[in-house]
Specification:
mainly alpha, about 90% helix, about 0% strand, transmembrane, membrane, DUF5345
Length: about 110
Amino acid sequence: MNERDEKKTISHLKEELKKIDDIFEPAVPHQLELDQRLARFKKERKRAIQKELLCFIVLAFVILFVYIAISIRVPAIFLTVQGAAVVILPVLALFEKKRRRTVKGEAD
């Protein structure tokens, strides 16, 4: 193909694409509809955040209660859990660091 044919083909394709764009022009929503959608989204998001916060607070109190109950009632189990955490957490951190390195390497 020579340069003239390429330019002709490109211009023809641009014209046809413009025709398609003119035929299938998307409907643009009105400002009022957009405002209503945004208000509804904000309201739903606010409810979701409140629900998540409530779940977090309840779970925090449950964990705190169990932590205190175990430390007062059964100190041997409490000390065992604390010792296991001291051993297991660094190992989990190493595994996570290694996993992130391999995932990052695959993405590159």
